[in-house]
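pipeline/complex-builder :: batch 7 item 3
reading input block
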Amino acid sequence: MPSLGADMTAGTLAKWRVAVGDRISHGDIIAEVETDKGLIEVEVFETGVVEKLLVGEGEKVPVGTVLAEIGAGAATATVPESASVPESASVPATGSASVPVSASESAAGSIISAGSSEVDLDGPMASPAVRRRAHELDVSLRGVQGSGEHGRITLDDLEGFPRGSAAAAIVGGRLRISPYARRLALERGIDIAQVRGTGLSGAIQARDVLSAKPSVQESGKPVSASERMQRAIAAAMTRANDEIPHYYVEQSIDMGNALTWLREANASLNVTERLVSGVLVLRAVARALRKHKKLNATWQGGKPVPSEEVHVGLAVSLRGGGLVAPALRNTDEGSLTDLMARMTDLVSRARSGALRSSELTSATITLTSLGERGVESVTPIIFPPQVAIVGCGATFERPWVVDGQVVPRPVMRVTLGGDHRVSNGHQGARFLSALDRLLQEPEKL
Amino acid sequence: MTSDEIHATLLRCLTDVAPDIADEEIEDDADLRDELDLDSMDILRWVQGIHKALGVEIPEEDYGKIASFEDAIAYVAARV
Amino acid sequence: MTTYRDAIRTALQTLLRDDPRVFFMGEDVGRYGGPYAVSKGLLEEFGEDRVRDTPLCESTFVGAGIGAALGGMRPIVEVMTVNFSLLALDQVVNNAAVMRHMSGGQFEVPIAVRMATGGGKQIAAQHSHSLENWYAHVPGIKVLAPATVQDAHDMLLAAVEDPDPVFVFEHQMLYGIEGPLDIESVPPSPWRAAIRRVGNDLSLIAYGGSVHKALTAADELEKEGVRAEVIDLRSLRPLDRDTILESVSRTHRAVVIDEAWKTGSLASEISAILAEEAFYELDAPIARVCTLEVPMPYAKHLEEAAIPQVDRIVEAARRSVRGG
């Protein structure tokens, strides 16, 4: 019985507006109470099912008396086997206010029968205390096996449940996993991105790795390295898509000067020193980044951390279908011949699986070039925690205007994908212009 | 050098570049880039390997002449 | 069964009896029988030449002990508590510890120094320090911390036998504990840690007055299905890295209990060793249970709250099992 006035000591329960078994929500009117000030509607602040009405209509009780008990649905226990409850037990909840009820009859009007899934307003049955605790523990109730009546989830059920989800184990872009667990996973060929952590804050511990089976495909064979890589890429790309607000700007670049210069240079170079056009683009991207530091950063702890050095990650597709983007450190420095040699070495090691961990983690931006097959342009997804990506299409002869004349020129479409939390289209466009300018003077690269 | 020996050498150079290509997969007249998913880096490394193994230099403008395996054999045979 | 203090007395008697180079000095050790009753009866047994009451001047009598050691004696110096030893630190750090080095090996300082340490008797801020880590920091000296009756006996013998300065820290709450004492058997090396309880779920690493608390905590944890290993470090300088590393490599979790303040403690040193050498074995962050970072309170309940107790050890262990 609420206190509805400073001097109220008792109130009369004039009328119940709900019946036992009714489902109620925060804010519903549950009763009318007669006070000196008149008839007042009483709201309920819980969500659940009315289990017991403890005070009869017309009864006067002191302030503070318990009027009713609201639970998570145990009312179903009182449904007698022989009750003529219709099979499609989808009696709407709040409508029963108009039906005069006594405690036993109302049980038959209970709207949650064992098999009904229609009135699943809040998911699994759990009291507010349980829901709050689940939220604190970052546990989804849907996965918890309830040990209470009719599968009701209790606090004890939560205490024994693994906390968090695999995704929760990633905090600030880094997977929370103990060094020992990481070592075990490596030794056993278990993909840690698939392991559910049971440690605090979803940290993956040894026991989680030990109980994780190496994923098995339908054929019963263990998952191959390339399949694992595929899944890791999928996870990373999904995350990037979810978390990073991408913007895209594109520019068509006349590659005439670059390709001409390349042909002439290669003609006089030893075959072992021959250059490919990709190295020109790589170098130009790196040099352009020097003046556009906002694109050369990593997202750490909620903010971009610009890098002083430029390490362009080169997207290398692997024959099995995988993709890696190892970094060529300090891509803007050294001679082109050096860069070509380093690039060749990196690609061959990427394809033979001999990359170094620093190469896999130090890229400050990625360059992806699909320009061999005739794809005109690419709209790439940023590799977290980077904040930008450059994608190049194939170089095609196109009609181009030079000095007022239409001439065929080899043209490449370059797309910059940027993280809109860090840079904007204007900055991206300026970067592309810089790239264009650099590629017009290949001898300076 | 016989045609077979050239074939074998070219094949070896190719598998050096792309270790996961099994011999049987390579059809003689198929376009190497399309058929075997080789990109310009792979082709360049193959050309470098051929140069190292057989002393035959293939300039960039002749890349079109080694588009398929049998074309490559013919090209190299004429210059070895 | 003997008490800790009686075990030390037995060791003193053996040393005074068997080696004429040995003499024992300190404040109130003679006529009074020692502030903790360790040397009760020794003056009567061995006389004033062998059992000497010193003036209230730590710097002087520790210095004199160093001098005597340099002169070929085997002095056992009692500094009443580590709190007062601060007055002799210069003698220790700048003379005892470096004499061998600075003389190119010509001089050695075979001095043994015994000190009471720790808190728990409401002797408050100036008299409850645990500064073993300050001594364990210094190359040139050795530091022992007996936690059992047997070690209290054996370690003193080893300290006197050692040609270098050895500091033996006796936790003041241990003097009255009882335990078995076997003076016939060959003692194990004092420089090794001992595994007092075997377990595979986590390693509780402790020394001196904290070892018994760790054992009690292990009993508590056993009820929850957590089998804790308890390591008694015994030697603080040198630290037995091998035992510590072997244990944590097996249990993958470590909780270090140290009655000193956490900052710059031996617990920190052990944590660093584990992080350096057992990184890939760790399944949870290393936990340190130390005295709270306050001057030792006088009020009983506050002192109890400040010093590591069983409940804090158990809680740290539980957290460790949960992954940190």
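note: Residues 3-17 of chain B form the longest helix (15 residues).
queue -> next item
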